[in-house]
Each structure stands twice: as structure tokens, then as C-alpha cells.
Automatic annotation (TrEMBL):
Entries under SUPFAM superfamilies matching the protein: Clavaminate synthase-like
One record GO biological process: fatty acid metabolic process
InterPro entries from the UniProt entry: AlkB-like (IPR027450), AlkB-like_sf (IPR037151), ALKBH7-like (IPR032870)
Record keywords, A-Z: Dioxygenase, Oxidoreductase
Provenance organism: Nannochloropsis gaditana
Oxidoreductase among keywords: yes
Protein name: Putative alpha-ketoglutarate-dependent dioxygenase abh7
Domain Alpha-ketoglutarate-dependent dioxygenase AlkB-like intervals: 171-268
Assigned GO CC terms: mitochondrial matrix
Pfam families, per the entry: 2OG-FeII_Oxy_2
Length: 291
């Protein structure tokens, strides 16, 4: 047995303390998620020393097939710009995830899971539009995510976003293949996944003259952020796969992907002409008032 030297002892001790803190936090978080221990989670959150920054590992996902979270093996479209699809893992910490979930739980408490979306795209879900955050730290997290998106894409920091759209998908819920309406949002849709892993599937959209056999899959782990832009945005339909009755989906490396209840924060940019459209609308309203 090799005994630690005197300078190593404080090092081992602090690692042990950090380890215990993390385990207690994880246990309280899972108790919180199962609905059994909201109070326990809150206590740990208040007493615990939270890490300030995100465990944000900016793995430069060039999306050229090297990303372990993007599967291009069934892509039959050599015009698809692979950098229009990104997945960034761990953009927030477990603590930050729990904080966001706590606030969103409060927002959704009185809502029931709806069987069907108005245009039949989503099954078994609840949703809310987040224009403001109660917890100032959550507001900061949302702001940081926007900066991460813009920095990743080298876009102007002045880009305006629509209010965050939150979807709470029940364990047996899913999102069918669809192409977002370009009427309201711009060239960007990004999603922060919370609570559960999921597989997002992109399929060439026939209406846009694309090959429906061209498929790209994204592994969305909790706390990861996906970004769809460029020609992946409106030429491909996207969907969140359902839990298969015969078992869990498998990722390319054989890993099982267990889908349970999942929350997602969807960030969309405003259409570039949105400002002008709003101005035109205001001018019309003013004109009407004077008439
Ligand atoms: O939950 C997600 O990440 C996907 C959301 C989605 O498909 C959409 O908002 O158009």
C-alpha cells in the first residue's frame, strides 16, 4: 500500500468532499425528477456550493461525420451542408438543468398532457412560451445559450430571438416529421434538451424536392444543445422519435437510448424582416387610429 504524501492528503480530501457533494446532489435531483423530493432538491440547491459556470465543453462539432452525436451514415444528399447540423454536449450543468426544470415544472403544473397538437404534429405534450424567467439565474442561462448559438455560428450578437418555446413531452409522447413554418421564424432552430435523451431524425422533405430516404440522426443527451440552420432547416423535416414498444432505440455505437419524459427549450431567431413587419404593423395601426 502506498500512503499519500502530506501534500496529497488535502487534495484527496477535497476530491472526496466534491464527490460526496455531487452524489448528494444527483440523488436529490433524481428524487426531484421523480416528483418525490422537491424539498430535498431545494435544500441541497440552497445549501450546496454550486459551481458557477457551465461544464460547457465546446467540442467543435464540425458535423462532418466526426461528431459522436450526429449520424450521417444514411445521408443520401451530397448537397446537404453538414455544418448546418450541430450538437453541443453539456452546455449547462446538472445543477442548472435542475433549476430550469424546477421553474418550468411550476409553469406547467396546472396543464395536462394534450393528446394531439392542433396540426397533429405532437402527441402527448404540454407547452409554454417563456417570455420572462422568474429565477434570474435561469434568465442568465437562457441568455448564455443564445450567445453560445450565435458564437458557434459566427452570427451577429444583435440577432433577435423569438420567445423561448418549451415543450414537455411525456414518456410516450413524440414529435412527428415536420418542417417549421417559415412565416414566423428565421433560419435557425436550436433546442436545449432536459431530463431525457432522445433521438432527433432529419428526413429529406418531399415537398421541397428532397429525397425522403436521406436521413440524418442526432443523439440528444440531456443538457445538450442542437442547432439546425442553413439547408438542414427548411429542406429537411425533423422529428423526435417515440419510445418503441419493442424496446429502446440504439445509437450507432450500439448504446441504448432510453426515452423518458423530456423537456426542451427551443430557440428560434426572428425572421430578418420581422422588425420591418412590426414597424409596418405599428404604422398601419397608427394610421387606423387617425382615420
Ligand atoms: O423538442 C424538440 O427539441 C423539437 C421541437 C420541434 O420539433 C419544433 O419545435 O419544431
Amino acid at each position: 500500500m502506498v500512503w499519500p504524501t502530506s501534500w496529497q492528503i488535502p487534495c484527496h480530501a477535497s476530491c472526496l468532499v466534491l464527490y460526496i457533494h455531487r452524489m448528494v446532489f444527483k440523488l436529490s435531483y433524481f428524487a426531484f425528477r421523480s416528483g418525490a423530493g422537491r424539498w430535498m432538491y431545494t435544500l441541497v440547491l440552497k445549501c450546496g456550493r454550486l459551481r458557477s459556470g457551465p461544464a460547457y465543453r465546446m467540442i467543435a462539432l464540425s458535423a462532418s461525420g466526426e461528431s459522436p452525436f450526429i449520424d450521417f451514415s444514411n445521408c443520401r444528399d451530397n448537397t446537404l451542408d453538414s455544418s448546418s447540423i450541430r450538437v453541443l454536449p453539456d452546455v449547462i450543468t446538472i445543477e442548472e438543468e435542475a433549476r430550469l426544470v424546477a421553474e418550468l415544472e411550476g409553469n406547467m403544473r396546472r396543464r395536462r398532457y394534450v393528446a394531439n397538437h392542433w396540426d397533429s404534429v405532437i402527441e402527448r405534450y404540454r407547452e409554454v412560451e417563456k417570455r420572462a424567467w422568474i429565477d434570474p439565474l435561469n434568465a442568465k442561462i437562457a441568455q448564455r445559450i443564445k450567445s453560445v448559438i450565435l458564437q458557434t455560428l459566427n452570427k451577429s450578437l444583435a440577432t433577435r430571438f423569438l420567445p423561448v418555446h418549451v415543450i414537455d413531452l411525456a414518456e410516450d409522447g413524440f414529435i412527428k416529421p415536420h418542417v417549421d413554418s417559415s412565416k414566423f421564424s428565421g433560419g435557425l432552430v436550436c433546442g436545449l434538451s432536459l431530463c431525457s435523451s432522445a433521438i432527433m431524425q432529419l428526413k429529406g422533405d418531399v415537398e421541397q424536392g428532397q429525397n425522403p430516404d436521406s436521413i440524418v440522426r442526432l443523439l440528444l443527451r440531456p443538457r445538450s444543445l442542437y442547432i439546425l440552420c442553413g439547408n438542414a432547416r427548411y429542406r429537411y423535416a425533423h422529428e423526435i422519435l417515440a419510445t418503441r414498444p419493442e424496446g429502446e432505440e440504439r445509437w450507432v455505437d450500439g448504446r441504448r437510448v432510453k426515452r423518458s419524459r423530456r423537456l426542451s427549450l427551443i430557440f428560434r431567431d426572428e425572421r430578418e424582416d420581422q422588425g420591418r413587419r412590426e414597424e409596418a404593423c405599428e404604422t398601419d395601426m397608427k394610421k387606423k387610429q387617425h382615420e
